[in-house]
Amino acid sequence: MTRLQKITFGEMRAAGVRNVLIYCTDDTCCRCITVPDDADRWPDELWISDVEDKFVCTACGQRGADIRPDWAAAKTRA
Ligand SMILES: [Zn+2]
């Protein structure tokens, strides 16, 4: 089992990933949304994990999210 390493938005963009997946951390909600081009609005040096607590789930109101780069979308573009 490999877990994704902690990366910054700059590293994510360098890898060709511009979309992020935002997962609700509430176990009973589990809402997941894709945010296109979200990487563009954050500074290069910012850790992805640093913005997780800025998100509030639009479905259940849970504060904090699990944010992951959308690696699948990057692959289809290449
Ligand atoms: Zn939720």
Structural class per helix/strand content? alpha+beta
Give a count of the beta strands, DSSP E runs of length 2 or more: 3
Q: Largest sheet, described in full?
A: 3 strands, antiparallel
Shape, per Cα inertia axes: globular
**Residue ranges: pLDDT <50 for 5 or more in a row?**
none
The neighbouring-strand order within the major sheet is: 2-1-3
Quick check: average pLDDT?
87
β-strand percent reads: 15-25%
- Please compute the radius of gyration using only Cα atoms: 12 Å
How do the helices and strands follow one another from N- to C-terminus? HEEEH
Distance between the termini: 26 Å
What small ligands are held by the chains? zinc ion
Number of helices: 2
Fraction in helix = 10-25%
The number of distinct structural domains comes to: 1
Task: Considering the chains and any ligands shown, give keywords for the structure.
2 helices, alpha+beta, 3 strands, globular, binds zinc ion, 78 residues, 3-stranded antiparallel sheet
Walk me through the structure.
With 78 residues, the chain is α+β, with helices and mostly antiparallel strands. It has one domain. The chain is 17% helix and 18% strand. It has helices spanning 9-14, 71-77; strands at 20-24, 32-35, 65-69. Strands 2-1-3 form a 3-stranded antiparallel beta sheet, with no helix packed on it. A hairpin with a 7-residue loop joins strand 1 (20-24) and strand 2. The model has no long low-confidence stretch (mean pLDDT 87). Bound molecules: zinc ion (ZN). Residues 24, 26, 29, 31, 57, 59-60, 62 line the site of zinc ion.
